[in-house]
Queue: 2 jobs
Job 1
Amino acid sequence: MQTNILEYLEQTVPRVPDKVAFADDNSQLTFAAVSRNARAIGTALRQDGLYGEPVVVFMEKSPEAINAFFGVVYAGCYYVPLDVEMPAFRIEMILEQLKPRAVICDGKTEAALPQFGYTGRAYRFDRMIQTEIDDAALAAVRAKQLDIDPIYIVFTSGSTGVPKGILACHRSVIDYIENLSEVLGFSEETVFGNQTPLYFDACLKELYPTLKFGATTWLIPKACFSFPTKLVEYLNARRINTICWVVSALTMISATGTFKTVRPETLHTVAFGSEVFPVKQFRLWKEVLPHASFTNLYGPTEATGMSCYYHVTREFSDTDAIPIGRPFRNTGILLLDEQNREAAYGEPGEICIRGTCLTMGYFGQPDKTAEVFTQNPLQTRFPELIYRTGDIAHYNEDGDLVFVSRKDYQIKHMGHRIELGEIEINCGLFEGVEAVGCIYDKTKGKIVLFYTGGAEKSELAAYLKQRLPRYMQPNKIFRLEQMPHTPNGKLDRKALTALYEAD
Amino acid sequence: MNEILDKIIEILSDLHEDVDFTTCDTLIDDKILDSFDIITVITEINSEFDVAIPADRIVPENFNSAQALAALVEELEEI
């Protein structure tokens, strides 16, 4: 039985050592190189006594950054991807939470490290891979490792203003990769075109199937996603046949009429998720790729990647929502109503997940973890955890799950999961801001911020850019004389929505 | 032309309150506009001027400055 994700790599290397595993416009790494570099990095970390602790990978998105992840796992540590484009304040906050003893960086990011107040060891990727591999030391690590040991932490938006680090183990990732690969039909012929950043669990879809099958992943330059014709030309030039993208990346191509100029030639597998795919846009894709498979994926980071899938094989009307479908094999879904009973068939309930897919919770935040990773209320005779997603769904007549709404103020914006509360808290910290309220315009996909106080709009916008990632920046800012409140003193979001709509 | 330019600057300023769009001509090169912004700009231009920017004109050169965008809109309006 497989107990370590590195077994994927180790089984593939002898078969296709010289095939390219990970590539971008600057470099290409073969499976043999990935294996060698990862073992060298693992050796280097072990030689300095690192084990069973977080190691931050602070590098530009590149094949090398991915390679560093595997190196960290070889050392028996877990990797934490941080991105150069994250605002400095967020990086500081994450480093403060983790207190890592080691950060792996590249030539560009090394210089930026001191400004975050980081005082631990900084390793350069290019130097680490020169380390002479100590196979005995790595074997000793492997002998100690269990499949319940963590391999990564990814950070997600937290409503208290502090990002939450979600920790996942080998077993959950193996479970996910096995079942996802079956559902989407990956193979050695698969050529992935990666869109999502490496600091989200979304990239698991490409990273580990690439190792498992000896497939190839191209990291598509971010700039391509602003220019649809270039993007499709990029896919064609690299013969990319499989993409797992956020919906907004797909609609950007179809909505701008790109298919009149250029069509994807090699694409046969399209998976999407994180947002609702408007049926009108979906049809444009289906029309241009009538033989491709289209799969809607759904799942929270807390349950390792994706939990449910739906193969879109039938017609939908413009106003229909494409279902999120059924759980992967070995994943269980419960729909619980407000009394913690199973919702009646067809009635809405909170999606609760059980299975090996459940992650280990939030790093260093036992209280936050206990709030959402709870005992299954339907199981009173022995301990069994479920993850409460906060997503409301119901079953349709075909027995497929259909997403309805959120229980709270969490939103999905450009495929990112965001707590409006985190934006509000950060905005409230700016001098000259008194009260803050945030709403989300779903139809236009805009985060709208209202505030009161003397602060200048432009200064507030500049301040938020230093504190919050790009995708959390308000798209529209309004200054008000007074913040509307409900009779019982709560922020009146309905009144804010009315103000926004009147504008 | 000035009316078009003013409106485009207004659309852009809504996206980034802190950028001076009257002078900046490196909106793409300096990564000031990202893919979300580009889509918003295309949508707003469509509803404001009733002009659909064809995919083959959605290229960096046309989005680097408010002036370039205004020129593009003007050209498309004439067709």
Note: The interface with chain B takes residues 222-223, 225-230, 248-249, 252, 255-258, 260-262, 414, 444-445, 457-462, 465, 470-471, 475-477 of chain A (CB under 8 Å).
Job 2
Amino acid sequence: MHMKHEWSARERSILLHLLATETSTPLAEIAQAVNLSERTIQRERQLLEGILREFELELAWQRGHGLSLIGRSDAKQQLREDLILSAEAIPTAEDRIFELAWRLLFEKDTLKLQAVAKQMHVSPSTLTQDLEKLDRWFDEYHLEVERKKGVGARVLGLEAEKRKLMINALLAHWDTLAFYRFVRGEDDYIPTFLKTVPCDVMLEALRDGYDYLKEHPYERMDDRTIMRVTFAYGVQQARLDAGFFLEMYTKGRSDDYLKVAFDMETALGTPFSMAERVWFAEEANRLRSLKEQMKEDEEERWVMQIRVHKLIHHVSLIRGFAFTDDAALEKGLLAHILSSMNTQALPDTDTVRPHIDRDYPHLRSAIQQAADIVFGTNTFTEEETVFWAMHFAAALVKPVRRREYRALVVCSAGLGSSKMLVNRVKQEFPEMQDVVNSSLFGLEQHRLDDYDVILSTVPLPPLSVPTLIVNPLLTNEEVQRVRHLLLSLPQSFQTKEKSHSTMLDFNELGALVETFERMDRQFDLVTLDNSDRLEDILLDIGTHLEERGLVQSGIQLSAQLLRRHEVAGLGIPGTKLALFHGRHASIERASVFAFDLNQSIPLLMMDQSTEPVSRLLVLLAPEEAEDVELQFLSAVSGSLIESEQHMNSYSNGSKKELRLLLHECMKKMIQDTLHEK
Amino acid sequence: MNVYIACPCGFVTSAMAAKLFAEACSGKLSCVIQHGTYRDIPEDVDWIIYQAGTETVDHPTAHVRSVRHMLSLTEYRQLVEEWVNAYET
């Protein structure tokens, strides 16, 4: 059995992006697609290499070309499935409602809401809200949740409707891929809401039912239909086992499928009553034709809606773009799929296809992959998915109204006249909050696509962005011209930057806090009873740090620090502080330490002068230090020269004052991380 | 413009130098300043600054410039001045 790996959101997005491309992908491209920095991806790369070996895949890195996944296509498919299925693992509010529905439907008496709230780890008020949502859903099946104060709740309605609701819930929430993994014996792949309710009888019946059905040829053997009939069998067994019988069932139409029901009950040794047999025959009748069934069942719309929602979710994961926020896409796609179910012939897609593939590379393959997962392989034709791609493509180019414009102001030197122009532009166009100036020489350093308009005091070569030549003083007439130009800009203009999700990256924040907590705990101010020889002092320091487990060899460290000092002085002129630092394989953990000397010694300063020093601040990092550690050490170094007051605190402050300074750097980094998201 | 300031360990001298360099650039030169070790010099960089006599820095496209003192604001002001005169006017 294949091991299920716990993927982080970050790992998942990087790998799905790589799986969607055949050739090497530059780091910058991956970084932009998945909203991470190149450094982060480099770091993840090293971690991923090991994990990918389990999948018999190699993550190849070639400088200048980027990353690529190398391995057999079935290994890639296995990885893709694993990544996508792991994304489903976290229970959602929707899962909670389904769980509640399940508990209600399997309750013989009344369900005590207080007790259920406790079992489900939610407050009674949350449960009450969930019940309200449930009412609307149950209503579609003519079911009613009757509440009695102090007693509980129970479901009123026909057993056949209850079963229909359960089958549809399973159909909507059980991904085809996960379902097939489950029936092959992998217990993890059941919908989240089933994980917390007793449903062993059903699960066992599903496997039996599937084993029976797959061995028999029917007219319609697509994944979805097989799943539906299997669910009918599983639900029926679970209901019978729990003592819920059909009152009466007379809807039977198809004699052929009465035989299927009869054969199946004989084969699996579970004799039905006549009503049960007719009911199951009706369900098995679906093996007839998917399209006819779609026409017949109103509730299919509801199932399809959830499936479309899932399709969009999977395409977003594979493609690395959040289509999920787009309600219009979901609506459009649903309408299209439902109407095409009733259409025999689809329009010819030959002319559209090349355009889609040229303008949106990999989009169709992402949709195809997602469709296979959600609807099962080959449920929809390739023709059909070309139309879906048009819906997704429309979402990619959808106009987004921008609140402010960005202008690039250019003059020959990028100094005097462009500064003047910048001020004039800001004065005249308060909506243009982002005004950047550049010299003619520096123009190529800017990503022009990031700007809405370029205003220049000198003639420019033809550029991709609307450009106006103006006087540095920006006359009134020119103001009008610029205004006209702005008005004529398409509303659809978007910057290259994708809108960032407002979700917190708990992993990143967690790593940050964990690192800071450790460094804060390790930090200490130690007074040394020192000699006047630097070598002895450094050896003392090395031994000290070795004892604390921060370095492997105190001797090696002291030699390193001494050498570093000899290359260039480490004292900070005008203070009594020297900044000893190193990055070396023998250093175990990144750390900040301070050592006070009970007698000051003369040391070489950074400006090559010599001055007395009475405190050594030691900053250390291992060769393979984490980015966050290096950033923090850099922040401490920067904070030293930030102000005279800081410098003074670092040179003379108590342990508490030094810790406060370190905490200030940490806070700033956390704030930066939050703002970046 | 991308400026990279290099030092042996990448988190003390170059971090402080980056701060000083930013101060020297203020109002004169618009650039993105990064700092780090000699081996982490990015490909996409226009100007590399490092401490004279510590290392040999080579880059196919960037201007490479060593300074006598990594922590001298005066020296950085002078460098920026030279750059602006040479390339920006």
Note: Chain A has five domains: 9-76, 93-296, 325-396, 406-488, 507-676.
